[in-house]
């Protein structure tokens, strides 16, 4: 199937083929980080945003930039610093002395893929400006509304090894991110290939899709079938983080101050849809959702002081919740859809 046909009439098979081409081009440049790259693709298809935590030098910037190149999208990177102001992100009005008129200068948030590097190094006012754009997909400058390009994906990074001079993101704002992904060091074999590529001839990704095709794939992701039992499973998982005692987890209640919001249930469902489409299906299965549960919930579960003193982590609590709330059996509805 040609890319033109995929745009005009996207199908799960055509989507999988196109996404495979995109992944192939990215992997020509980026070594390893398969799980991280898959989460970026899921967020892109679902129209969500990513919060990424990892030490410097793990190809976070390179991954997003290469992905933007493969889909012919605009890529912008903002280095967050304590002296940043909201106008540095969204733009401002500039006075022209010759004409006596004001003109609008749009900021770097007007891009398809935006990398907000070390978002916790900027004060709350700047963080709020970015998170407002993420939610509303638009900016208002001097009473005039400007919409950001579609599709629009924000990937914000946090450095876990330095806390001096940082402004932690408030829980209510962190909730706007669809997923929080932890990026780890590459294996020895992967690092060997990384060094070889860096010291060898430069490799660049070839554009294989367009932003219009990406928008069509996002629309196709919203048509993926999700069985009601799977939605109920998402709701039960999220509910267990708020009232664990109702799900046979009485001991967990003292370790959790706040559980996940309804945004988590929505993100789980939308993410399962996108992952199913990425895997070439027009219906979501339980494994599509269970694969994303830690990434969707880890930044939405706030540990109590008792939980922190016990050395617990959100991931360890989420693991207990997943064991207590069983996934539904594979729904039979997909058999009707493919018949």
From TrEMBL:
SUPFAM superfamilies: P-loop containing nucleoside triphosphate hydrolases (SSF52540). The keyword Aminoacyl-tRNA synthetase does not apply. The keyword Thylakoid does not apply. Its EC number is 3.6.3.-. PROSITE patterns: SIGMA54_INTERACT_4. Keywords: ATP-binding, Hydrolase, Nucleotide-binding. Residues 12-159 form the Sigma-54 factor interaction domain. Pfam families: AAA_3, AAA_lid_2. It is an enzyme of class 3 (hydrolase). GO terms for molecular function: ATP binding; ATP hydrolysis activity. GO terms for biological process: regulation of DNA-templated transcription. Belongs to the MoxR family. PANTHER family: MAGNESIUM-CHELATASE SUBUNIT CHLD (PTHR42759:SF1), MOXR FAMILY PROTEIN (PTHR42759). This is MoxR-like ATPase. It comes from Variovorax guangxiensis.
């Amino acid at each position: 199937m040609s890319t033109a046909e995929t745009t005009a009439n996207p199908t799960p098979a055509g989507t999988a083929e196109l996404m495979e081409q995109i992944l192939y081009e990215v992997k020509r440049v980026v070594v390893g980080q398969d799980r991280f790259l898959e989460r970026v693709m899921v967020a892109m298809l679902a129209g969500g945003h990513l919060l990424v935590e990892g030490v410097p030098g793990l190809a976070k910037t390179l991954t997003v930039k290469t992905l933007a190149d493969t889909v012919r999208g605009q890529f912008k990177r903002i280095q967050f610093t304590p002296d940043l102001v909201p106008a540095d992100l969204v733009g401002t009005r500039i006075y022209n002395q010759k004409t006596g008129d004001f003109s609008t200068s749009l900021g770097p948030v007007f891009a398809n893929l935006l990398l907000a590097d070390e978002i916790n190094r900027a004060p709350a006012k700047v963080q709020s400006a970015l998170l407002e754009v993420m939610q509303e997909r638009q900016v208002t400058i001097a009473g005039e509304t400007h919409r950001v390009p579609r599709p629009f994906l924000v990937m914000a990074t946090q450095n876990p090894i330095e806390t001096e001079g940082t402004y932690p993101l408030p829980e209510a704002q962190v909730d706007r991110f669809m997923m929080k992904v932890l990026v780890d060091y590459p294996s020895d074999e992967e690092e060997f290939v990384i060094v070889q590529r860096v010291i060898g001839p430069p490799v660049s990704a070839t554009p294989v899709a367009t932003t219009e095709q990406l928008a069509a794939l996002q629309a196709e992701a919203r048509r993926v079938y999700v069985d009601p039992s799977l939605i109920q499973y998402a709701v039960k998982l999220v509910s267990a983080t708020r009232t664990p005692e109702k799900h046979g987890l009485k001991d967990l209640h003292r370790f959790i101050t706040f559980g996940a919001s309804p945004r988590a249930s929505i993100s789980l469902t939308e993410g399962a849809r996108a992952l199913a489409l990425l895997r070439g299906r027009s219906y979501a299965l339980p494994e599509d959702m269970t694969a994303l549960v830690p990434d969707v919930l880890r930044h939405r579960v706030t540990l109590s002081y008792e939980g922190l003193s016990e050395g617990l982590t959100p991931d360890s609590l989420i693991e207990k919740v997943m064991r207590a709330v069983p996934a539904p059996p594979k729904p039979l509805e997909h058999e009707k859809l493919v018949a």
